[in-house]
Write the structure tokens for this entry.
Amino acid sequence: MPIEVTINHDEQIVHATCHGKITLPDIQHYQHETWGSVKVKGYRELFDASKGDVSDFSIADAMTVADKGDENDSGANKTKTAIVISSERQKQLAIIYATKRGLNPDNPRTVEYFFTSSIALDWLLK
């Protein structure tokens, strides 16, 4: 699977790591299987896309994912997502995703992007 997921219930963090080509159906599967569970509602997210190939991922795809994220987070307490990136394309998609999420006044999730997972994790734990 192109997205590996581990969940730390003690720290309330979902850690997703991408490998290889990432498509909209891959992200939708991740959102449904992971964030569709009430067990992780409101958890922080470390989404490491740095080893993923997003060359086929479009702006419309990023907006679709953001809309589903809003739906999944409905009613959750304030929380955070850190996206780890390694390319300009990933940065652009992360900015689009974060902006779309931020436009929803009911969105409880703050989204930022980082170039290293250690800095991203430090931010999540603050």
The chain has one domain: 3-125. DSSP finds four helices and seven strands in the chain.
